[in-house]
Amino acid sequence: MKEKLQAIREEAIRKMEESDALDKLNDIRVAYLGKKGKLTEVMKGMKDVAAEERPKVGQLVNDTRKAIEEKLDEVKRELAEAAREAKMKEEVIDVTLPAKKNNVGHRHPNTIALEDVENIFVGMGYEVVEGPEIEYDYYNFEALNIPANHPAKDEQDTFYINDKIVLRTQTSPVQAREMEKGKLPIRMIAPGRVFRADEVDATHSPSFHQIEGLVVDKNITFADLKGTLAEFAKEMFGEDTKVKFRPHHFPFTEPSAEMDMTCFKCGGKGCRMCKGSGWIEILGCGMVHPKVLKMSGIDPEEYTGFAFGIGLERITLLKYEIDDMRLLYENDTRFLKQF
Ligand code: DAH
């Protein structure tokens, strides 16, 4: 019996030492300590052992079981440790390798300029609103006092979807949409994309952006218009910027004007930027035509207003001294990266 136990112990330990995986170890445990295991088999023979020998043999069996269990634990720990080390080796990080560079996107120059304009007007208490790019002929023309025979309505200038629907040629229709809501006073700017059937060149594109402005309240005068837009020019192009207003004509404003500002490059002396004149035209504006107020349900006897329209691309090109508008649309990252 003693030899048998000794043999089982040695055999089990040898097998455990040879085993290289945790599941093999489990097989060994079952084969020796399990219900049908070798040690259990031996214990069944206890009944044949002489009574006075039994405690001794029992002790021996226990020792053997203990030795096998201890070895099992030990090998288990070793295998787990080896597995951990192998995994660590596999996952080694070489901190000296050069990092992968992410391509970080950034804002388009038009977006940067628009945000500057928005911040200036929001600072003056204006709300930023939007209108649809696909617009009813009514809002794009009629509600703005642009008569049916006006040249702007010519198919050469306007993209028609059908006789009632166009791609808006200006952001001015947002004026009519806001006034129609009937919530007064109004202080809004409406930036957005507009469309005209133009050929592409350095200063033209079939799609560009405008920023519309509209103020309607009691006692609004041309002085409010001048003060507001002069302040805008200063905040946008520098404290020394001066402005002047030239009479002009727009169907939806009366009187109407175009605003020029002193050239931010030469300060008014005349340079390449301002084509030698010292002045740069930057927007159209005027007092909202009484007919336009009336059509949108506002009483022109009680309320007056002013409006203005800024070409966003024009501002962007000036601000960044870019001389070809096409660069803004080509999405060449070598160009865009510079802003
Ligand atoms: N809608 C005009 C255009 O596209 C620009 C404009 C001029 C807008 C005067 C206005 C304004 O609101 O008062 O040429």
Brief synopsis:
With 339 residues, this protein is an alpha+beta fold.
Task: Please outline the helices and strands.
Blueprint: H1 2-18, H2 22-33, H3 38-44, H4 54-90, H5 109-123, E1 127-128, E2 134-136, H6 137-140, E3 165-167, H7 173-180, E4 186-195, E5 207-217, H8 222-237, E6 243-250, E7 253-262, E8 279-288, H9 290-295, E9 304-311, H10 312-319, H11 333-336
Helix pairs in contact: 1-2, 1-4, 2-4, 5-10
The protein binds 3,4-dihydroxyphenylalanine.
Description:
This protein has 339 residues and is an alpha+beta fold. It has 2 domains: 2-90; 109-336, 2-Layer Sandwich (BirA Bifunctional Protein, domain 2). The chain is built from 11 helices and 9 strands. It has helices at 2-18, 22-33, 38-44, 54-90, 109-123, 137-140, 173-180, 222-237, 290-295, 312-319, 333-336, and strands spanning 127-128, 134-136, 165-167, 186-195, 207-217, 243-250, 253-262, 279-288, 304-311. The strands form 2 sheets. A 7-stranded mixed beta sheet has the order 1-4-5-9-8-7-6, sandwiched between helices. A hairpin with a 2-residue loop joins strand 6 (243-250) and strand 7 (253-262). It starts with a helix and ends with a helix. The model has no long low-confidence stretch (mean pLDDT 92). Bound molecules: 3,4-dihydroxyphenylalanine (DAH). Residues 170, 172, 212, 250, 253, 284-286, 307-309 line the site of 3,4-dihydroxyphenylalanine.
Side by side, the strands of the main sheet go: 1-4-5-9-8-7-6
What form results from the Cα inertia axes? rod-shaped
Question: How does CATH name the architecture of the largest domain?
Answer: 2-Layer Sandwich
Computed CA radius of gyration, to the nearest angstrom: 43 Å
| Count of extended strands | 9
Number of domains: 2
- Which ligands appear in the coordinates? 3,4-dihydroxyphenylalanine
Contiguous runs where pLDDT drops below 50 for at least 5 residues: none
Distance between the termini: 91 Å
Q: What's the helical proportion of residues?
A: 25-40%
CATH uppermost class of the largest domain: Alpha Beta
